[in-house]
Every structure is written in structure tokens, then in C-alpha cells.
Batch of 3 targets.
Target 1
Amino acid sequence: MTELLVGTRKGLFVLEGEPGAEFQITTRAFVGEPVDYAMRDPRTGRLYAAVTSPFWGPRIWFTDGEPGGDDWQPALGVALPKGGDEALKRIWVIVTGEADGVIYAGGDPGVLFQSSDNGETWTLNQALWEHPTRPRWRRDSGGLSVHSIVPWPGEPDRLALAISAAGVWLTEDGGATWSHGNEGIVADYLPEETRANAIDLCVHHLERAPARPERLFLQFHGGVYRSDDAGRSWTDIAAGLPHDFGFPVVLDPADPDSAFVIPVTTEDRVTDGAVTVWETRDAGATWTPREDGLPRENAWLSVLRQSFAATGAGAGLELYFGATSGEIFGSGDGGARWFGVAKRLPAIASVRAG
Amino acid sequence: MAIVRLRGQLEKLAGAPEVTVEGGTITDILRALESEHAGLEGWILDERGVLRGHINVFVNGEPAEPDASVGERDKLEILPAISGG
């Protein structure tokens, strides 16, 4: 049985099912509130939800009970320093760390939080918050967001982040210091004269290949890139895709040469009438369309950066993506064939599978 | 001391539907309220100390601005704004 945690503009939906048939909606939580992200920590089974109440502000909630129950607790410390000029706007992502009890969360305005007690209390990463380049970071239409956090398997002090729009950031000392990993990324939305040393790079999503941790893939605001040196430098691998624009990227954990993207048009940021997932199994040298079972006409879907998820690996790889139209599609065979998982949900902001 | 009426999540976090709080203005009272009831910290005022955008405060049934004066035994209510669409 596969569980999907689906964050929507009107609450958290929990779906369960087997690949190949429509899933059942088993639970709703935070009914009517924007749930930007939800995940389950596989180490503890604890559920987390990032909820941005239009009234009470952004918060991380957690529960060890049933997702539809009354046991959700608000986490403490998910806030900026008091008395400053800025307020936390949104939590974009929650990720398990490598050390026991460690969880990370990224948010707007370009902030990283860490918990060492399984998400009950959190502290702001001061080195990133006070980074001297911060005045040059640029807010994009989605905000100034830490949306991707990728730990290094087995090495708790090594971490990579992506910030929209402030590029890729790397730490090897547990977040005490941060360096850029932007070499090779070309922002064609900037004047040519300023591209070489640009910081305001609009990375849409970042993933690390767990079987080869020095390899990362990212979907950029125009370009798909691969790094083979732990995120320090990047090579554009978008040749062969119908569009180089998109938001999410997903990997097969068993295959460090794999990546899946959902290209959308640069002009309107939706699929171009047909929905196609593109797969590489040679680290981006070639791309193959995966469309069997996906809409082939009259389909202009918007799939956001947190709305494409994988569970399993290799021959057992399952893929799921949701759209702002409220539809979810899935594949139980690594993208070869697709089926409808759900439809008529509120606009989908995130999908996690487990 | 002003009387602050709480509903829904705020009541749950404070552990009571009504509390008394000292302060000369609405902002003073909200700061004191969040300070005296740690579970409420950040729910009504953001990190800048600014009243969250979609929260309305009423004094004795009338909408009031954050810098409005509040007298002894005045009754405050903190409510989500009308929204939809």
C-alpha cells in the first residue's frame, strides 16, 4: 500500500492505494487552510505539515497519531528573530537529516531551520540568515524561498540547499559556513554582462543521487543541470527536452544516472497541451518521453516544484505528480505506464509518497 | 486590566476563553498576552511586532486599530478577518 501526502490550498489530503488504480482519500486535515508541504519521517513515523494560515501565519505542525486526529502540535521556534524588519512568510520544505532526530525546514525569506528533537523545537541557521551576500538575493514570483534541502547520505555535516533566487549553497561543517555552488549555471533572464558572477539564480528544484552523493540534478528557470562535484559546478543537460523550463525533478534512488522532469512552456509555465514526463538514464545525455496513460490533448497543467515524488527504487520505483488543477497521476513501473490517482482536489502544492 | 476574549485555536493555546491583561494600547495588550501565554507567541503579532494582516481586534464590540487606547475593564476580541473568494 502506498501513502500519498498531498498538500493543497485547502488542506492536507492523505491518499492510499496500489499502483494501477485510483487511490482512496483516507483523511483530510487542516481543512480549508493552505498546506504547503507535508511529509512523514520514515525513521519515526511522525508526520509533519507546513501550514500557512492566512490569519495566524506560517507554522510547522507534527503528530504521532492519525493524520485526521486532534494530536497535531505546533512546533516551537519556527520564526525569525524578534524585533527585526522581516517576518517568516512560509515554510516550503521539510527534510529528514542524517543525524538522529535531526530535521531541516526551508522557508521564505531564504531561511533554513534545524531541529534536533524530531521537529518539536527549531532554531534558525544564523550563518545563512546573516550571510553577507543576502542583500543581493532576489525574490521571485514565489517569494525568496529555501525550497530544496539535500543531505549527504552518511555525512551529517554536509548539506546542499537551493534558494530561489539565490542559487545553490553548500556546507561541509553542519551549517556553520556556506559557500556558493553556481559555476556553470547560466541565467538567460539576466543581461549578458552580469551573468558570470550572478548570485540571483532561480533554481526551481535540487536533488542528490543517493547512490552517488557527489552527483546532483537541478531544474533551473530555463535549463536542467547536473553536477558531478558535489554541487560546485554544473553542466546543462537540457538538450533533447522539448522545453528547458519546469519546476520539479525526481531521481531513481537506485540509479545515479537517472532523472525525471516535467517540461513546461517558458511563456505560460504549463504543459503544452499534452502531459509528458521525460526520463534520462544516462545522466542527461539523452531523454525519453514517458507518456503512456497521460493526457495527450487539451491538458495545460501546472506542476509545482514540490508536487512530483518518488517512492521505492529500481524495478519498484513508483512516481506520482499532482497539478494545480487538482489531478494526480502515478506510475508503478518507473514511468513506463501512468494512471489517474485522484482528481478534483484543490490546487496541489506538494506530493510526498511513501 | 482589560479582558481579552479568545476563541478557537487561540483559546486552545491559552487554555482559557477569557484572560485579563494589562496594557495601555491594543499593541501593549497583545504583546503582554503573547508574553504571559507562551503558546500564543507569534500567533497574533509577527516577529516584527506587527499585528498579522488578517486579524481584527475589537474593543467593546467596535473595530479598533493597534495603537488605540484601552481602558480598565474594556473587553477585547481577537478574530480572523472576513475572507473568501
Target 2
Amino acid sequence: MKRGLLIDYYYCTGCKSCEVACAIENGIPVGQFGIKVEQVGPWEYEPDKWQLSYIPVPTEQCNLCEQRVEVGKQPSCVHNCQADAMRYGTVAELVEYMGDNTRQVLFVPETDKDAEDVVRTFGQPVKEVKRENPAVTEKETEKEGNAMGLSMESTIGDVIDAGAVSELFEKHFPGLLADPNLQNGAMLKFGTFVQFPQAAEKGITEETLSAFFTEANAL
Amino acid sequence: MEFTRDVDYAPGKVPGRWQEGDLTVTRGHAWTAPGCHDGCGVLCYTDKEGNLVKVEGDPENPYNQGRLCVRCLAMPEVIKNERRLLHPMKRAREFRGQADKWEQISWDEAYDIIEENFNRIKAEHGAESVIFCWGTGRDIGMVHRLCFAFGSPNLMNYGFSGIACFIPRMVSTQMLQGYLYTVDCSQHFPNRYNAEGYHVPDVLLIWGNNPLNSNADGFYGHWVIDCMKRGTQIIVIDPRVNYLATRAKIHMRVRPGCDAAIALAMLHVIIAEDLYDHDFVDKWCFGFDQLAERVADFTPAKAAEITWVPEEKIIAAARMFASAERGAVQWGLAVDQTKYSFGTAHAINALIAITGNVDKPGTMTPIFSPFGLDKRGSEDFGMLAPEEQHKRIGWDDYPMIKAGIPMAHPDVADKQFDTELPYKIRAAWIQTTNTIACMGTQPRRQYEQLRGLEFVAGCDVFMTPTLQAAADVVLPVAMWPENDSLWIIQNYQVAAIQKAVEPQGECRSDYEIDLELGKRFNPEAFPWEDVRDRLSWYLMQGTGMTFPELCDAGASLFDPDQMVYNRHEKGLLRPDGEPGFNTPTGRIELYSVGFESLGYDPLPYFKEPPESPVSTPELYAEYPLVFTSGARHIEMFHSEHRQVERLRSMHPWPELLIHPKDAEKYGVVDGEWVWIENQRGKARQKARVTPEIMEGVVNADHGWWYPEAEPSEPNLYNVWKSNVNNMIPFDCGESGFGSAYKSMLCKVYPAKEGFADIEGEGER
């Protein structure tokens, strides 16, 4: 499955964080690049209308950070992108993500092997690789095999895009997966979320969650 | 609000340090050194040998949400830079300016020399004859204490006319509104933009700065992009066409120094068209009628003539801002770097006030200290007896530096070096500030002044032209991954800067140096064993946590009490607990009683810059371009980072931006060196011919020197060759604040004699 980088060149500000993050991550010397920001403009093509774009272009030295995605991280450029204008994923996912949006470009660098699927969306800078206390993480790893070992310590992100678990969540809490409040709060733990007043309004309580966890963990 | 600190950072839930394969990851925050105005959440990766391998943004930190700029990303290379100062050094006074005369010494010997000299001068001439100079955007809050505990009232931004960066905005806002405020980008909430009750600004004015590069104190510039993605529309006021300007609904290319005229004309439109917030003005503002009268004849047509901005744009901007349910202004250096900074700041403050864009979600929200902690400066100033405080340079000249801003006045100090009245300045402590290369006005004067002192000691991460020229003792400063500290600039978060690697060489942090020197001067004022002891003592007062506990708890703590709107209605802004604002009238002062009592104009005003096409037509005939400087670049902080190859490669030489039509007129070729000159001095930079800058205006880089060049005199790293402050006068506003760094006149012509003396010298 081919993977790539989707870049929004309306929001790319040309800050070059991708250039440096990539170079340090991959040991690329000064003067060479794994990804390089190109500037187009500025020029005034009509009174008061200006062309100015920045477009990060991956090079032959880009391997889509295989060493990072293998362990569940984003490529270094995507992780550190200040404008959060880059997204990594399979080409199919990225094409779907492009949807009706304009001013986007999809790069598909050639790498040695496929990488694990990690998704991060535009406009949702907080949804990222989560790192918990090692003790908690280990516990969750042990339970791998039956989905995720969901508990109040799990995050909302754990049920988003999680196949059967997502479907089950949808069954318990119809419509909520699409709720922007949940989508954007992917890093929140359920245990924290239930304390918010809006959680109860959305039908999320310790009881309803507990019922959902039981069913999900039995999958 | 229900959102408390346990959302992301409940103690123990998120670790402060963990192992990933062979690498150790340390969670913390970045600050300085080298300089920065922000404190992003970072993850530092170190290997078994203790080397810093990489730095990444901390995705679980609400402040920067995993993102990071190039200066932190390059830290592994910055730390290992071969030009770093690694050991304390001394040099005999007669060898000042000679790079080959330094002799490595121990910390003890260095401290002994500093202690002996400062105490001798104090005993013979009084502590006030020693000045303490400090740089901007640095983790050196302890220098307050060092200075005052030593007994000198003279802590200062030495050489910086009008203290023209943020201080003018700060002081005037404090006077007019009774607090400081910032654009509400949800930074108070750990869950940020999703916080209940939060809404992004509908319209954001980006005024006289490029936040994406400048990242002002506690304001992460790319929050503007976050807001744009969530619906914020922006208006940009800037002579340059930068990224934000091209994404703006309205871009006003203003003649530098004339921002107040735009603000007054916008006020005119908003009042004349009855677009202001009647309810808010009636209840919470003072002096609306006088303001209305003041702006009655300041029409957009008049402003257009002054500012070179089309009239219809000013009208459209006024209507757009006034009709927004939530409006906010991200203002910048352009407000400060005019002689009439108070008039400008007052006008923009009034614009914010009469549109009711205060203390509500997505508007301008007040800033206080988290857990009541950040009171270092003023507390420490109380250590001086009143008669000692009165010896502060500028005490009788500028009343506003008596309260709130405990700093000596640079313009008065400049004169005092000549007059030696009321006393002679004899020694200086120079803490991570590079005056002659960076912000010093007429930097040759500071060079001569420092050279004439009896004793000069300083510290920095790299040898600077300033220290090379004048220092007798130099101490090496650690960088932020090498030290423990705290970042408490904003009101909502206490953030630990956690040591991830051992310092290179014998480097020690600014904080540590101040603590150790302080013990030498005045042990009672420094009862802490070491930096961690002091940090814990400080933290305990507000949070009940020690520094190690904070680190273990994920290095960050949000103050739930700060996530509050409408404080003015709830009586949370005034010490007496009454509703209203903490000003003499209890309201936001459109007409300032405070300014009036000090003899300043009580209303917003515009005055032509002291040298401009209008105020000095004869000068303009000879110097036909408006000159501005001070714009920030993401890859370098002021005069720093010039020695870091990866960052320097992004911006190898100082650039003068000039419009193609002007370039043609004055024979300037893109990429070639040019002279920028006025009646006071000149500097050489590389021309970049671009429509990015408006016609009739040139924009020069500041802070340039060349670490690769000859370090000894007379070259001093070629510090005099490209320094645009050669052209700036000491000429601050009547309040003592603001200076015309950004609005001078100049001419530009090709540097026919070539540039080998700059470009060809030394290896980079």
C-alpha cells in the first residue's frame, strides 16, 4: 500500500520546521534535505491580489520516516509542522481526506517498505501519538489481541477509527463519533471526560461507559 | 469552569521522563539560552552517552501541541557548536578587545575577581555606580535580585533608547486598563480550542508584527493559523506582504511610524457610523465624549494622506472590526518603536475598548500570574531602601519608571556617561545581552562607554562583540536543555524546564550564576542552597509542589482559577473586589487621568515621526526612503544563532528589502551589497529586490555580526559593518518610552568598494 504526504499549501507558512526536524531525525547534512520548502511569490497579479505559497517538497532522501511510523509515530516533518499543514497516511486515505478541499498537493515518495498506518488530520493539532506512564502502556500492550483493553484510562482517540470498537461505540452512543467535541478531544481520557458537564448531556456517564467497555473488551 | 489541570497533567498520570529503546526522553519546556520569548513543551531525546540526539514538540502539551520551530529543532547542533564558551576566562583590562589575551580560570577565581571589584567600587563610590545589563527573552529573572541585593538600583536594557520593545505597550495598557492583556487563543485552557464556552476571534487585527516569526512573550505565533482554520478572519497592518498579509481580508501597507493615524481614523469611522458598543462604553469606559471630540476631524481621507493607505481600506477595516462579535488585536513592535508610542498604544487600546472586545471569549483577555507566583521583579526591588531607589538613573526624569518597571533609563544613562552627574558609572555586569551588535542605539557610544569602565564582567553562551570589546571576566552560560528552571510568563501555566543533558564544558545557567554571585554579594538575600532549592521554595508558595514533584508530574501545571471570563463584572480585577477595572476611574480610560496627572496627552494622538517625508522635507530630499528595521526571523533570535551553520544557511547575510521600482531608481541589484545611510551613519547589507516591501520604504535586518570574522579589534567580528543602529538617534518619547527605530529616513546605493571584508573573511 503506497503512502504519502498530503500538504496544504494554503496553510503552510514556510517556517521550515519540516526541513530541520527531518534533517536532525535522519542525519542529513547542512545543504541537503529530506524535505525542502519552496517559495512561490510574492507577486501581485491583480490589484491587491497576491500570489505567495510555500510548498514543502520531499526529496529522494525522504523515507517517510519508516523508523518512526513503525513505532506508531508520525514522520518527523508532520509531527513538528507548526501550521499543522501536513498529513501522513496511505494514498487512499489522503485522497479521501482531500475531499473537496483546494490548494493541496499529495506527494508519494518512494520508500523501501510499507509503514504502519497512522492518521492525523488537519486542524486537529492535539490528536497525536499519545505517551502514557510506562506502567499503564505496558498493561495495555499485554491486553493486545482483544482490541485495546478499554477502561476509564483509555482516551477518546482509542475508539475513533478503531474498527469494530468504533462501531460498538456508535451503537452505544449514536452520532457521537462525528461530534467535533469528541473528534477534537481525542487526547482526553474517558475518566476525565465524564467529569465535564457536557459529557452527561451527551449521555456519557460512568455507567454507560462501563457497559460499553465490557462489550468492547469482549470483542 | 470545569476544566482543571488534571485534564492532561494530573500528577503522576503523565511522566516527566521515560525510556524509548536506547533513548531517554525528558519532558519539559524550552526557554533560554539562547533567547526566546516562548516556552514550548518539548521532548528531549538523549542517548546512553548523555548526548542530546533530538528535540521534538511535546504533543501532549497544550501550548504548542507537538509543534516546534527550527531553533529548538536544531538544538542538538546548537549545543555542540564549536564556538561555545566553555570555561570562565579573565583578561587584563589593558587587553580589552584582544581575543588572544584570554586566560582560562576556575569558577571560584572568576567569582573572586567579580566580587572583589564590584565590592571595592561599591565601597568607594556606592553600589549605584555599577550597572546591571540584561538581554530580552531570557531566563534571567534572578538578575533583578542580584542587582538589588548588591545594592544597585540600576538594572537596565542598556543602550536601548526608549526601552522600545513591549515596555511602551505594557506601561500604557497598565495605565489605561489596569492590567496586561493578550489575544484569547484559548491558551488558558488545557483542552484549548475545545474548551466549553470558548470561541475563536471572528476578526483578528495583526498590527505591526509577524507573529509567525516573532512569537511574542507567551504568544505562540501559529495559534493565529489555528484560529484561521476555525473561522477567524484577519486584517494585517504591515508595510510588508508576508504570509499573513496574503491570507488577510484586508491588508493595509502603512508608512512606518504612522500606525496611530490608522487607529485614529478607524476610531473616527466607528464613532461617526455609530458602530461602537454602547452598552460597554456606557458601563465600563471613561472619557468617551473627549475621545469622540479628539477623533472628530481625523477622517479616513486625512489618514490616507498621512499613512499612504487607501481611504477605503481604512473604512472597510473599521467596519469589519467593529461589526465582529469578537475582535482582537495582536499588536507588535511597530507600536513601541516610534517616538510617540504612547499615542499609538492609547489609540489601539481605545479601539479595543469601544468595540467591547475585552475580557470575553475570543477577545483581549487579562493576564495575571498563575497561582499568584510571578512577582519577582517588584518584590526584589523592595530590597532597596527608598534613598537607594531614588539613585536610579532617570528617577527624576521619567516618573513612570518609578513604579512597575524597575529599570534604569537608557537614554538618561547615555547622557550620564558624558556628564558623570549625579554620579559616575564605573562598572557593568553584562548578562546575556549583546548591546553593541543588537539593540544599542548609536552602538559606538556604548562601545566607548563600556571601554571606559573600571571593571566589566559578563556571561553568555557565545563570545559576543560586546564582551570581546569590553569584558575583563567572562562566564560560560548553559543552554536550556542543560539546566533546571521554570517558565511562568503567561498566566495559566507553571512549566518546568527540566535538565536533559549535562552542560558542555563548565557551563552554568544564568539562574545558577545569579544565585552564586548573589551569595557572594549578599548571602542573606540568597538563602537557597542551589537552583532546585530556590525553584522549589518559589513553587511551594503558590502550588504546594516542589520542583522535582512538578517534573515528576509531567512538568506542567495549569491554574484552574485563571480560566475565567468577564472578570470586570465579577470584581476580579480590582484589589477592593469591586466590579470594574483597576484604574483611577474604575473604568477603561479612553481619557487617561493618569497620563493627565503626569503632564502627558490624556487622549490618543498621532504625531509625525521626528524625521519623515512630512516633518523634515529637506532631509527627505537627501534621504528619500523611509527606513524600518527590527523584523524577526524564525531561524535566529535577534543577534543570536549566527554561528549555527544549519540556521545560518537559511539566512546567511543581513538583508535589505527594497521595492523593484526603488531598486531601479537607485541602481540597486538583487543579491548585491548596498550602503544604507543617513546623516548619522551607515551600514552595509545585501539587497533583496522584492515587491514584498512597499515602494518608498526599505526594511533592513538588525543585530548582524559575523562570528566567523576576526574577533579582535578593530573588527570585533565585523560588528560595525552591517549595524543599522548606526543610523538611529537617542530620542525617546516624553514619557521616556518609545523611540523611532522603525521610522527613520535613509538613502540606499550600491557598495562599489565591494564586500570582501565582510563576505570573504573567515570560515563559517
Target 3
Amino acid sequence: MARISVDTGRCIGSAQCVLAAPDVFDQDDDGFVTVLDDNPTGEAETTARTARGICPAQAITVHD
Amino acid sequence: MTTDAAADLVPFMMRRPGAPFPPPEYQEFRNRPGLVKAALPSGETVWLVTRHEEVRAVLTDPRISSNPTHEGFPRPSRTVGAPSADEVPGWFVSLDPPDHNRFRKALIPEFTVRRIRSLRPAVEEIVDRAIDGMLAKGNTAELVEDFSLTVPSLVISSLLGVPKVDRDFFEEKTKVLVTLTSTDEERDKASEHLLRYINRLITIKSKRPGDDLISRLLQGGLLTPQELSGVSMLLLIAGHETTANNISLGVVTLLQQKQWIDDDRAIEELLRYHSVADLVALRVAIEDVEIGGQLVRAGEGIVPLVAGANHDPEMFERPHEFDPSRSATGHVAFGYGVHQCLGQNLVRLEMDVAYRGLFGRIPALEVAVPLEELQFKYDGVLFGLHALPVRW
């Protein structure tokens, strides 16, 4: 179990998280990240961690 | 102990072989401690960064700048090295945060995953027409000119809101900018024509807005019309030859390993494997900073090499093999940090639609010359092919 938080002030809207973890992240109309599931488990948790690793703006935190 | 500093300098840029794509010297550079000091043809020295971890570190460090007005910013040649945002208002790749933020904020709604997905039918139509044109001419084509350059040019013109009647003009001028046989004078003239055209388009869209990027950005009010002109030229230049090179190289690679043609993972691996924009992300340190154990002084130029990072065996096993079954996630083909390519999801869409169209409609497609005769852009800023003769 992991809790997800995002820093929208850092987000640059590259949408890499939306592509890597579509069940966990989405974009609002302005293109900034929104969290769909802040407590992902199983496969969704794995993809959320991948998204954290590839986010170019380092805007995603996974709290263990 | 004394060392002869000049003797330690490596000359830069390196000639790229056809495949594997990064210059073989990068492997040796990755094995050295610290960074590698290189001499540009101009005589200035820069730090080369070839390991994945350190390329990402350089591209996310706020003490390292993208602004070419800073003393020491690398200027490898006439064609490499961006104008500054002072010279061309709206040239936001040359701005650091916080100046950069306003541009990115204005543009990201245009490149969301949803928006890019909604462009698929328009891209499919463009690809279909280009293939219709090839098929109508017979059973051979020069793919770079007839397809790879055409598709992104038309996609960008559609995105910007260039009316259909002007698209031939737009495509013809954009091709002149990137074609090997163009002279500098022809390129300058084409660039001038395009800029004048875009300025006129902005004036028209401010009076009669349409459903396009220029109209929406004008209405959004975050950018001035003058900045929007620079932004439009930047989108055009950043999205044209890069995408074309990716499409062409991908066709060659997929034809060599046809088992991957319909595999969804192929595109990400193609992006990593070819790393066409190897030396686009030029930087300069504006404070002293340590990168990979190397002290880089304020005012020293840095060249993070994305092909180096993407072929770093610490990050990708057997990096010189094209293997879509690996996870290519984490590659930096589009850069990293706040300047990571804005249009990356559009490039992915264009490559996907291009390959579905080409291999779906022309199953007998093959390269018409032996691979060793292909004209790679050995010394270009962007890696790619000058020409790709095909037949079916």
C-alpha cells in the first residue's frame, strides 16, 4: 500500500504519468496532473511507481 | 604530477555510424570517471555527459541553464545552438523557469493525452493521402521526401490552423529548411517566407478565430502575438525534421525485424534506439555544480548526450540491440526536466499512424537499396536519413 501525492506547481503537463499509470493519474483541462487513485494497490501501485520514476518534473511522491 | 590539459580534450562532434546509432566513443566516455572535456570546432571547451543518471541530473538541476545569453553557452556550429528569447520572442526553449513557465502553461492544454488522441483521425487522413500519392506514382518512392517529411509538416500545419489551400505552400517551404540540397540562401529565404506567412495567419486568426492552436492561444491572452509567432516557428522546427527522422529510421529498423511491426511496444524502443535528437539539449552552468563527481564551474558549457544516456548499459541491457520486449520506459529521447519535448505524445501518434498506414496498406514495402548504401545523416545535429529509396 502506498499513498500518492503530486506537486502541481512542479508539473509540466508532459503526461508521462497518464500514459504509464492511467488508473492512477489524469490531466485536468489545463493539462496539469490530477490523482484518480491516491491509494493504488497491486498493478496500479507498480505503474504509479514507474510514473514517479519517469516524471520529467519530479512532481510525484510515493509515500510508503 | 602535471597533466597536459589540451591532450585530454576530445574533439566534438563525433561522426555517428549507421548502427548502432550513437558514436562508439560514447561507450568509452561512460567508462571514464567524472565527465569528459571536449573541444568544439570553435575552440571552446564543453563537458560531455554520457551516462543516463547524469544526463537526467544535468537536465533537472536549477543551477544549469538553457539560456544561450549566459556566458559559456555551447555553440557547436552555425546550425546548432538556439537563438535566445531576446532575439526571437517566444523561443521558450531558451528560457529557464520562472520565465519559461508562462509558455509551458499556455501550451500544455494543446498537448494533453486527450487532445492528442482527438487528432488521430486528422493524422490518419494525412497519412492516407501521402500513401495515396506514393501508390499513384508507381511501385517505388523516396520515403523521406514523399512521406516522412510530408506527414509532420501537414500535421503541424493542421495543428496551427493553416488553411488547407495554403498547405502545399507550407509544406514546400518547410521542406526547403531541412533538405540536404538546399543552400543556406534558400533556407534563409524559406524561413523568412514561413515567418511572414505565420505572422499573417496570426493577424487573420485574431480577427476570425477558428478551432486551432493559434486561435486558442490568442484568446487565452497569456502570450503576445509576437511571442506566438516565435512559438509557432519553434513548434514547426522542433516537430518537423525530428519526427521525419524517427519515422524513416523506424521503417528501416522495422523492415529488418518484421516480427515487431504490429507490436505496441515497438515505438518506445524505436525512440530509445535511434535517439535522433542526441545533442539538442545544450546547457551552461550558472553556479558551480558537481555532476557525477565532476566539478563544473559557473560559465562552463555542458552537452548532455541523450543517445549516450539511452545506450547506457547500466540503464538498458544490451543497449545496441533493438528489442521492444524490454521496457524502454525511462529513456530520455525527448529530454528530461522542464524542457522535455512538449510534442512527444504527438510524435508517438504520428509514428503509430505512419507505420499502421505504410505496413498495412503496402505489405510488400521494402528498402530498395542495400542497407550499407543508405545515406545516414552522419554529421547532422539530428540523426536520420537523407533519403530512403523504397519499393513494393
